[in-house]
Amino acid sequence: MACAADKVKEYRDEFTDKTEKLIKEVFPTKVVLLNEFLKDKFNIEDLKKIDGDLNVPMVHPLVLANDFQPSPKKRKIEGEEPVNNIVVQNGPLKAIPPNKILVELIESLKPEIQDLMESCNSVKTWIQLLIPRIEDGNNFGVSIQEDVLGEVTRIEAEAASFLDQISRYFITRGKVVSKVVKYPHIMDYRRTVIELDEKEYISLKLCCCELKNHYLCLHDAITKNLDKIKKPRSSNTDSLY
Questions:
Q1: Which of 145, 144, 129, 152 is closest to 14 using CA atoms?
Q2: Helix (H/G/I), strand (E/B), else coil: 158
Q3: Distances (CA, A) of 95 to 12, 74, 178
Q4: What was the pLDDT predicted at 125?
C-alpha cells in the first residue's frame, strides 16, 4: 500500500507541475496561434465564395428521356420505380460531396476544440486537488477556487457544444441535400443549402474566436489568483493562538 501511495504522490506532483506549465506557457501560445489562424483562414469577406456546387442537375439524373411526362397508367417495367409520377431507372447515384472549404476548416478546428476540452479537464482536476479540507472560517481562498472551477467547467461544456454544432450542421445539410435530390426543380431547397453553408462559416469563425478568448480568460483569471488558488487559507491565523 505504501508503494502505491508513493506512486500516487509522484503522479500528483508531476501532474501539478505539468498543469501549471500548461497555464503559464501553453495557454498564451494558444492565444497567439488561434489569433493567427483566425486571420489566415477566416478572411473571406464575400460569403458567396464558399458556396459549393451540389452537382445535382435540375432533372433527376435517372429519369428516362421519354418519361418526363407523368404516366400513372404506364405498366411498371422491372428495374423501374415511379417517383412523383415520373418513372426512373434504378442504378447508382453520383456522390454529392460536402462543402470542401467548410470541411477543411472543421478538420482544422476540431483538434483545437479537443485540446481546450482536455486542458479544461486538467485544470479542473488540478484545482480540485488543491481544495483544502472543510473547516469553519478563513474560506475566502476556497471561494476563489470554486469560482475559477465553475468557470473552467463552463468553458469545457461550451467547447463540447461546438462539436455538437458541427454534427448538427452535417445532419441538417444532409437532410436538405436529400430534398434537393428528390425535388431538384424547387430552388428554395438549393438556396437553403447555400444559407446553411454561409451560416456554418460564420459559426466556425465565432467558434475560433471563442476558443482564443477562452484561453485568454483562463490564463488571466488563474494567473491573477494563482496564490489564492494554490494556498487558499492563510497561515497568519496560526500566530493568533
A1: 129
A2: helix
A3: 51, 30, 12
A4: 95
